[in-house]
Specification:
Blueprint: E1 10-16, H1 21-30, E2 37-44, H2 52-57, E3 61-64, H3 70-83, E4 88-91, H4 100-105, E5 110-114, H5 126-132, E6 137-144, E7 154-161, H6 168-190
Parallel strand pairs: 1-2, 1-4, 2-3, 4-5
Antiparallel strand pairs: 5-6, 6-7
The structure holds 5-O-phosphono-beta-D-ribofuranosylamine (GRF).
């Protein structure tokens, strides 16, 4: 990420729609002494997203942006990113697809965590698809966001074994545990040159 070189700590916005367990792991990581980032803003498209409780608990500014109209919602997002001097966006279970226009405006500065070993199993229900296809492994990937869904450059991946009688539920939980380690590691990797 060449444009961020020279900045001491970067300002991050985390986008969520649900439980926010990845948000929590990023917040806790950001509190570590050597952390190179600060989470300045949490954006949710849903008022009821459980993960918003972490914004409250850790006193991080939150903004709920309802997607009644995608264009307007993204306009508001851009205003908020600018207002809060956000350098990098981390998508963490954000269930809306960003437009090419927004991605272009924040080119190279949006990353996502996805619950599969990309390029396999883009989209939803990744673990069930992996089980159905009798894969030996599932896993998770942190990648840059580009115009194509779940297709940007991979930053880091972690494999998770699929057992014989695995259920989607059990596998989801085991992968999620790994996601909580992988996302901070991926940030460390891309921010290592700061
Ligand atoms: C995670 O599995 C993430 O990979 C996917 O959505 C889920 C979000 O979980 N994109 P949480 O809201 O962080 O608990």
């Amino acid at each position: 990420m060449p444009k961020l070189t020279g900045i001491k700590k970067i300002n991050i916005a985390v986008f969520i729609s649900g439980n926010g367990s990845n948000l929590k792991s990023l917040i806790l990581d950001s509190f570590k002494k050597k952390s190179k980032y600060e989470i300045k803003l949490v954006i949710s498209n849903k008022e009821t997203a459980k993960g918003l409780k972490y914004a409250k608990k850790f006193k991080i500014k939150k903004k709920i942006i309802k997607y009644l109209n995608k264009k307007n919602a993204e306009k508001t997002i851009l205003v908020e990113l600018k207002k809060n001097k956000i350098d990098l966006v981390c998508l963490a279970g954000f269930m809306k697809i960003l437009s090419n226009n927004l991605i272009k405006k924040f080119r190279g500065k949006i990353i996502n965590i996805h619950p599969s070993l990309l390029p396999k199993y883009k989209g939803l229900n990744t673990h069930q698809k992996a089980i159905n296809n009798k894969e030996k492994c599932s896993g998770c990937t942190v990648h840059y966001v580009n115009a194509k869904l779940d297709s940007g450059k991979i930053i880091l991946q972690k494999k998770v074994k699929i057992f014989k009688n695995d259920t989607c539920d059990k596998l989801t939980k085991r992968v999620l545990k790994q996601e909580h380690l992988l996302y901070p590691r991926a940030l460390k990797k891309i921010l290592s040159n700061l």
